[in-house]
C-alpha cells in the first residue's frame, strides 16, 4: 500500500491533534471538522479501503469501532447520539486511502447524506 498522510501522522512526521492511541488504533481530530466532534480512528497497520479487509482483520476492525464508541461515550455523546462513517473509494467519497472511521457528533445529523 502506498504511504498516505495518515502514515505520516502515525510516525509523527506531521502534527495532528491525537485524542486516542493504543497498540492498534490511533484517533485524531479531522483537520476539516464537519461537526463539533469530528475524530478519525485509523488502524496503525495500513489497510487502504474496506475492500481490502480480510477475515483476519475482524478483531482489528472491532477494536477500531470500540475505540470510537468508547471515545464517544467519554465525550458525553452517547445519549444524544453520533454518527460513524467509513467511506470507500470514489462513490463513497474516500479521499485518503488508509482506512478510517469518522466519528461525528455534537450536532443533529441528517439523512440521507448528500
Ligand atoms: P475521506 O474523505 O477519505 O473519508 O476522509 C478523509 C478525511 O481526512 C477528511 O475529512 C479530511 O478532512 C481529513 N484529512 C485530510 N488530510 C488531513 C490531515 O493532514 N490531518 C488531519 N487531521 N485530517 C486530514
How does this structure look, described?
By secondary structure, the protein is of the alpha+beta class. It has one domain: 2-Layer Sandwich (HIT family, subunit A), CATH 3.30.428. The protein has helices at residues 5-10, 58-74, 89-92; strands at 18-21, 25-29, 37-43, 82-85, 101-105. It has a five-stranded antiparallel beta sheet, covered by helices on one side. The radius of gyration is 14 Å and the shape is globular. The mean pLDDT is 97. Guanosine-5'-monophosphate (5GP) is lined by residues 5, 16, 28-32, 40, 87, 93-96. Guanosine-5'-monophosphate binds at residues 5, 16, 28-32, 40, 87, 93-96.
Descriptive labels:
alpha+beta, single chain, 114 residues, HIT family, subunit A, 5 strands, 22% strand, binds guanosine-5'-monophosphate, 3 helices, 24% helix, five-stranded antiparallel β-sheet
Query: How do the strands line up in the largest sheet?
Result: 1-2-3-5-4
Q: Which distinct ligands sit in these coordinates?
A: guanosine-5'-monophosphate
Q: How many strands?
A: 5
CATH class: Alpha Beta
How can the largest sheet be summarized?
Answer: 5 strands, antiparallel
Approximate strand percentage: 15-25%
Looking at the structure, the CATH topology is: HIT family, subunit A
Mean pLDDT: 97
Shape: globular
Structural class designation: alpha+beta
Helix-strand topology string: HEEEHEHE
Q: Tally the helices: what do you get?
A: 3
What CATH architecture label applies? 2-Layer Sandwich
Supply Rg.
14 Å
Q: Poorly predicted ranges (pLDDT <50, ≥5 residues)?
A: none
Helical amount among residues, as a percent range? 10-25%
The number of domains is: 1
Beginning-to-end CA distance, first to last residue: 29 Å
CATH superfamily: HIT-like
